[in-house]
């Protein structure tokens, strides 16, 4: 915080009236110069104070405007269609596609152009221009033409791989089988289980196998601040999939938008609810035998709203558990495939020692073992490196238990 400058002392001189005229004149001149000096200092301080006041006034104005925006109830998202003369614009509200002609303040009019996304209040007055950072569409989807993951990269969950292939891959590669038998394939597949067990890998591997575009969105991305934005993102997601089909839509952390309804009726909850309804209606609307498959994943199966599990929605549930001993051994060999492993590394023993480890944790174990080899200036990774890595991981995690305790997936 800047301190106020100190006020100069008032100049003071005792001038003896008995002094000869020329000396008195000299003394008065000196006093006059002191006064001019102090006067200059005071005017400078006054100028500074005025500047500061101006800046503070601007700040207060800004804060008041922001406060006003926050106080006015929820904001809606709209796109600017046209900017007209006389500070008027046409905006189209997301959600209902209503087009409105609205006045806009001069503060905002210079900052907008057609195509911009804006937040409007109940009376359609533009409150904020959403910058590209707020423009979630660009950043919230991860799109991969053909992910590099294959089924051979996934260990310990063969049964789950088989189920996913049947529920997602076959409808894409052999749709005629479903036509012949006369049944619809599952609409959506829900993978549930603790973190780091290969759910995302499974979805990517199907996309790889079927030459489908992989489009991932995290449920947390769909929980948006502005009304209409979450449902718009859901629409964008399906639109993107239609443009790029065949496509696999993967919604991670689906629990973020599909948690069981609570008693509270805040506008935030209502918005999450709307986003979920949009997802369900998109799912209801798409062709079950078409070229778009949808997979969702969660670590919190217990919290899910059962509405999303009804037939025609996520009607194939696949649990992806932590790997068992053989699974851990398989995952270890997968993640050490590219490593220079010394003779004598006992994967069986390591699998015994890693009870409760997820696939992701086994992957870190292999990397950590490699780090020990480098630290010891070897280019071969020995069993002792794995043992040291295990010890380090156990130490690091001693406060934060490695097992899935605390994750409720059933
Ligand atoms: N079964 C597995 N086989 C081989 N590697 C695995 C397996 N499970 C996890 N991994 C490794 O862990 C990483 C993370 O796995 P993935 O992202 O698929 O987990 P997830 O189940 O989707 O986790 P989350 O629930 O946290 O999103 C993978 O990139 C892979 O290297």
From TrEMBL:
Residues 185-324 form the AAA+ ATPase domain. ATP binds at residues 196-201, 335. Its main location: cytoplasm. GO terms for biological process: proteasomal protein catabolic process; protein unfolding. It comes from the Archaea. Pfam families: AAA, AAA_lid_3, Prot_ATP_ID_OB_C. The keyword Coiled coil applies. Residues 1-21 are annotated as: Disordered. It is found in: Cytoplasm. Homohexamer. The hexameric complex has a two-ring architecture resembling a top hat that caps the 20S proteasome core at one or both ends. Upon ATP-binding, the C-terminus of PAN interacts with the alpha-rings of the proteasome core by binding to the intersubunit pockets. Belongs to the AAA ATPase family. NCBIfam families: PRK03992.1, proteasome-activating nucleotidase, PrtsmActNtasePan2. HAMAP family: PAN (MF_00553). ATPase which is responsible for recognizing, binding, unfolding and translocation of substrate proteins into the archaeal 20S proteasome core particle. Is essential for opening the gate of the 20S proteasome via an interaction with its C-terminus, thereby allowing substrate entry and access to the site of proteolysis. Thus, the C-termini of the proteasomal ATPase function like a 'key in a lock' to induce gate opening and therefore regulate proteolysis. This is Proteasome-activating nucleotidase. The lineage of its organism: Archaea, Methanobacteriati, Methanobacteriota, Stenosarchaea group, Halobacteria.
């Amino acid at each position: 915080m800047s301190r106020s400058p100190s006020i100069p002392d008032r100049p003071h001189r005792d001038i003896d009236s008995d002094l000869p005229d020329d000396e008195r004149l000299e003394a008065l001149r000196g006093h006059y110069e002191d006064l001019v000096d102090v006067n200059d200092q005071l005017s400078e301080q006054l100028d500074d104070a005025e500047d500061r006041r101006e800046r503070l006034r601007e700040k207060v104005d800004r804060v008041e405007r922001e406060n006003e925006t926050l106080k006015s109830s929820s904001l809606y998202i709209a796109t600017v269609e046209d900017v007209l003369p006389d500070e008027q614009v046409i905006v189209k509200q997301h959600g209902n596609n209503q087009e409105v002609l609205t006045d806009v303040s001069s503060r905002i009019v210079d900052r907008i152009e057609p195509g911009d996304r804006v937040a409007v209040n109940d009376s359609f007055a533009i409150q904020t221009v959403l910058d590209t950072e707020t423009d979630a569409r660009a950043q919230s989807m991860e799109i991969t033409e053909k992910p590099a993951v294959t089924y051979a990269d996934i260990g310990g969950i063969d049964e789950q791989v088989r189920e996913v292939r049947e529920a997602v891959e076959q409808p894409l590669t052999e749709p005629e089988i479903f036509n012949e038998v006369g049944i619809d394939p599952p609409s959506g597949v829900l993978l549930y289980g603790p973190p780091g067990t290969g759910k995302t890998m499974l979805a990517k591997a199907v996309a790889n196998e079927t030459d489908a575009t992989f489009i991932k969105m995290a449920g947390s991305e769909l929980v948006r601040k502005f009304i209409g934005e979450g449902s718009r993102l859901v629409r964008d997601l399906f639109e993107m999939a239609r443009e790029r089909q065949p496509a696999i839509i993967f919604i991670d952390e689906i629990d973020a938008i599909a948690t069981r309804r609570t008693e509270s009726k805040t506008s935030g909850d209502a918005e999450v609810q709307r986003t979920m309804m949009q997802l369900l209606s998109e799912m209801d609307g798409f062709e079950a035998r078409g070229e778009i498959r949808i997979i969702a994943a969660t670590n919190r199966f217990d919290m899910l709203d059962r509405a999303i599990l009804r037939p025609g929605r996520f009607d194939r549930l696949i649990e992806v558990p932590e790997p068992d001993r053989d699974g851990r051994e398989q995952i270890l060999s997968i993640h050490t495939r590219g490593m220079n492993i010394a003779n004598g590394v006992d994967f069986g023993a390591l699998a015994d020692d890693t009870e409760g480890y997820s696939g992701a944790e086994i992957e870190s174990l292999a990397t950590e073992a490699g780090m020990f080899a480098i630290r010891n200036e070897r280019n071969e990774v020995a069993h002792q490196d794995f043992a040291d890595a295990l010890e380090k991981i156990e130490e690091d995690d001693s406060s934060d238990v490695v097992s899935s305790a605390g994750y409720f997936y059933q």
